[in-house]
Design a protein that fits this description.
mainly alpha; 4 helices; 0% strand; elongated
Length: 119
């Protein structure tokens, strides 16, 4: 029980320090400008950002290419295919129009009036 309380106390002490955003630097910490992942300042940060972006785009490319290849192989036309299509579902405009209205409203709020959208 003591061990759990000691662990909890140490955890809470670190949590309070992290919330205070001090980390033992005192007033010097407030003079440091906040960093941004979209504008790396140092040379290593720029290289790491470039490598990270390259890795993410490569992963997306591999996944999309794999899915396209799988779809082409899995759903290719067969010799026994007579060219007819399966039954089509009905078109329900009364279900589609509210969705389009909501989409237009949200895009208008975020693109035309970005200051008012964040509340």
């Amino acid at each position: 029980m003591r061990r759990k309380l000691l662990f909890l106390g140490a955890f809470l002490a670190h949590a309070v320090q992290a919330v205070a955003n001090d980390w033992g630097m005192g007033e010097a910490n407030s003079k440091i400008a906040p960093s941004s992942i979209f504008q790396p300042i140092s040379t290593p940060a720029h290289e790491i950002s470039t490598i990270f972006v390259l890795a993410v785009t490569t992963a997306i490319f591999v996944i999309v290419t794999g899915l396209l290849t799988y779809s082409l192989i899995r759903f290719r036309s067969r010799r026994r295919d007579d060219g007819s299509e399966p039954p089509q579902t009905e078109y329900w405009p009364h279900l589609l129009l509210p969705r389009i209205a909501i989409l237009v409203f949200v895009l208008h709020q975020h693109l035309v009036e970005p200051g008012r959208a964040s509340a």
